[in-house]
Amino acid sequence: MKKIGIADTSFARYDMGKSAIDELKSNSTGFKIIRYTVPGIKDLPVACKKLFDEQSCDIVIALGMPGGKPIDKQCAHEASTGLIQTQLMTNKHIIEVFVHEDEAKDEKELAWLADQRSREHAINCLDLLFNPDKLQKNAGKGLRQGYEDAGPIKG
Amino acid sequence: MKKIGIADTSFARYDMGKSAIDELKSNSTGFKIIRYTVPGIKDLPVACKKLFDEQSCDIVIALGMPGGKPIDKQCAHEASTGLIQTQLMTNKHIIEVFVHEDEAKDEKELAWLADQRSREHAINCLDLLFNPDKLQKNAGKGLRQGYEDAGPIKG
Amino acid sequence: MKKIGIADTSFARYDMGKSAIDELKSNSTGFKIIRYTVPGIKDLPVACKKLFDEQSCDIVIALGMPGGKPIDKQCAHEASTGLIQTQLMTNKHIIEVFVHEDEAKDEKELAWLADQRSREHAINCLDLLFNPDKLQKNAGKGLRQGYEDAGPIKG
Amino acid sequence: MKKIGIADTSFARYDMGKSAIDELKSNSTGFKIIRYTVPGIKDLPVACKKLFDEQSCDIVIALGMPGGKPIDKQCAHEASTGLIQTQLMTNKHIIEVFVHEDEAKDEKELAWLADQRSREHAINCLDLLFNPDKLQKNAGKGLRQGYEDAGPIKG
Amino acid sequence: MKKIGIADTSFARYDMGKSAIDELKSNSTGFKIIRYTVPGIKDLPVACKKLFDEQSCDIVIALGMPGGKPIDKQCAHEASTGLIQTQLMTNKHIIEVFVHEDEAKDEKELAWLADQRSREHAINCLDLLFNPDKLQKNAGKGLRQGYEDAGPIKG
Fold first, then answer.
1. Cα–Cα–Cα angle for C76, A63, A74, nearest 5°?
2. Taking the CA of residue B134 as centre, how many other CA atoms within 13 Å lie in the half-sphere pointing to its CB?
């Protein structure tokens, strides 16, 4: 049975891990979920590494909500760099789901965005694991997670 | 027989992978193409790593279309850094073909650019694989992919 | 018995290591503390690496106070990147506790912040080591270390 | 016999590799040159890695001409980071010779600069390989490659 | 007997390596110094790596003087990142001593700063090697190298 890791944070202001888990369970079966919560996004790379190496996960969804200040942007950059490094060390995918606090106009929209993006990326996770042909069919389609799709451009 | 990997995204708004594959097939034979589509450009480094390690590719063309916002530029930077790291871990070339959404004046030009750059880099891929002497002959010639060549400067 | 490493600096203007150690000892037992002080934050990554490899630490708290100038921000970025790399090389957590000199309005608040953040992260360290369920219960709760919690947002 | 690698690009607008090779041959003997031309500067790190691992080079000169736009600066940063990583993986020197298009006031000066910097770094390459004492004698002398030396400061 | 590496550059406009060596010898005995001069700061990471791997150094002092332009700042960032990576690969300390050309108001002060910072970091090097307890005693004391200490803040 496949194992899906969920790495999330107590820093985030919305329980994105819960949304992702709910979406995973609503759409598929035949996998086990292992959740690991850490303080902040810079703790996510090693959390994912441990989920792969110590818990034998096949893929991990890493969820976080960077704040809106310059230092938060830098933390997100450092975390993302570490997540890519982790993937290269393990040959496994990590679906990064970051919602920046300044992406939404108010708290209500921010909560909606955090839920929606987590759910749509949960589907990407399932597709990478069980359904890679669906992703290939969508190549170049301008898909987005959270807000509406940009769509393909016409030549 | 050589294996050429095509790593592309569903985030891109143009099917750059298709352009690259079409150009490869129009110009050469004696290779097999393996395509792997992932959600976004930050998923490309591990996609390429898997194409090398699990599919025995000899070279990979990685195609993506970063958006025009600062966060998109940062994602492109993180992806590029990961693509270079992947190459150093495998001793294989990855031809990065990124088209930034703000490089063109409108959607029509953007589609043209995405197609054209993918095709010209497909030729670079074939040259690296089968025809390194042609690249050496072009050293210092100011070649560009997509828009017209800058050309050599005169002393 | 678990070993907790404390890596700190002589550059910092507050003895954050002392605060962290005091908090650790006030809240738990059954662990040994190994302290290693280096000149500046860029010396912290290898200090942590040595605490893991040569002192068999199970986790490290890395404490530092970057100055307020652009060059200091860059040093902090380089140090953070190294700390993440160290974690990926060792599969162990490093709790980074950085207090930037321009985060507080005066020296008194800065001292309070340095003490408070060190203490709250010491608790995170204990939770990661002995009490991961508590962290999971706090997923998405908008917790902060130092200043007051941002709290969860409502949808 | 020592092997010197020359890694250069078809993106560059001046044949810097030719200048470097000419200078190497004019100043020394007892080495073999292996040239490898790739499309752009981001292809240089793996080109150098292959020159070390597959061609047994003892040192490599990596030459490139980043454009003047912000994206070009970022590419140069990514390439440089990769070149440093390559050196650490191989314990061999790479002499990076980058000429930025906005360093010169016109094309004529740019061509002169590209030629001159390539030649002066070719000498550095020979010194690292055959004559390290000369470099040590020049420690702190404010040497530059291309434009005139800054020279030592007086206390 | 311990071996201390000195890695410096011909780009620097002051012989910082000489200052560091003089200070080391004035303050301690029982170690051997191995000096390695390279062209610029981006050559320092592999120089340090070679001092550890090929010369069996126990610690290295890496000295350089980045210029005042944006490109120089970027070079310093790349060099620093490489120096941290080197330390993580070897589990040995590198004391980075960089003096930025725009840190001083004139050449005379710059020369003084380069000399003074090199000397104070030479003492840090000796303390890391022979006297770690002294560093721990100074934790949180706001020490600086070159200009005067910032000192501890009061709560």
1. 20
2. 10
Tell me the three state secondary structure of residue B6: strand
Task: Give residue A46's identity as a one-letter amino acid code.
Answer: V
Please indicate if any CB of chain E lies within 8 Å of the CB of D141: yes
Contact A37 C81 (CB under 8 A): no
Provide Rg for chain A, Cα atoms.
Answer: 15
A34 in contact with C at a CB cutoff of 8 Å? no
Cβ contact, residue pair E100, C13, below 8 Å: no
The overall pTM is greater than 0.95 = yes
Sheet holding A59-64, edge to edge: A31-38, A2-9, A59-64, A94-98
Which 8-state DSSP code applies to residue C78?
H
Maximum CA extent, chain B: 48
Chain D's closest residue to E86, CA to CA, is: D88
Residues in chain E: 155
CB C120 within 8 A of CB C39: no
Structure tokens at E112: 């003084």
Torsion sign, CA atoms E126, E129, E131, E135: positive
Q: Of all residues in chain B, what percent carry a pLDDT higher than 70?
A: 100
Kindly report, residue by residue over E14-68, the tens digit of the pLDDT.
999 999 999 999 999 999 999 999 999 999 999 999 999 999 999 999 999 999 8
Q: What's the DSSP call for residue E10?
A: S
Q: What are phi and psi of E15, to 5 degrees?
A: -80, 75
